[in-house]
Structure of Glycosyltransferase involved in cell wall bisynthesis:
Amino acid sequence: MSETQAISVVVPIYNEEGNLEHLFAEIHAVLHPLDLEWEAVFVDDGSSDASMRVIHDLAERHGELRYLSFAENRGQSAAFCAGFDAARHDIVVTMDADLQNDPRDIPAMLQKFAQGYDLVIGWRARRKDTLAKRWASRAANAIRRSITRDTVHDTGCSLKVMRRSLLLRLPRFVNMHRYLPPLLQAQGARIAEVKVNHRPRGQGNSKYGTWDRAVAGVFDLIGVRWLLTRTVKYDLKEHNL
């Protein structure tokens, strides 16, 4: 872990009051023993429950926790982007707050990242979702790969390790977090996948329906494909910078 000096764990949160104590305890238990500096950045996306009360309490007890709170619900992509902006370190780990992502997978992903990659993606090889969600995800991934031409198995897994300097260069739009692999690849990122644990949801309810996400995804893919074909690329012949 010596190549990885400091990380920021960015977690978007929307009505997850029952999961936050457990989530932070797991993150702390995994990262505290490692030889690195770390912080957790919790981004509250306008929750209507007691999530912010729990976050305030956690922040008072743990100096590693920083937080942002939106005035109103702006969506997961906006929460991720706010977390990227606020992160103090160039290595960013992202994950969901519903406890389906397992923080114990982070060390292996950091070790892979340290081998020279710019993006390491969690691959939920054995998902704990409903059959309908698993089938919808497989179909969506297949369609996405055919259009964006990336080779990632599971772009929908929020557990990722990324280089912040590249994230800050990306175009920002609603649902952009679902297309980070092809967007980062267009910026020259080296990408790897690591199989990760996937757990049943903790407390609370899923924030996404299966088919409304699929319909929105069609429009997103059209826009992402346009962006990818218009990405500016160049190689320097020489310079005196």
Q: What stands out?
A: The longest strand covers residues 6-13. Strands lie at 6-13, 37-44, 65-69, 91-94, 119-123, 160-163, 191-195. Residues 6-128+152-205 form a domain with the Spore Coat Polysaccharide Biosynthesis Protein SpsA; Chain A fold (CATH 3.90.550.10). The chain has a mean pLDDT of 87.
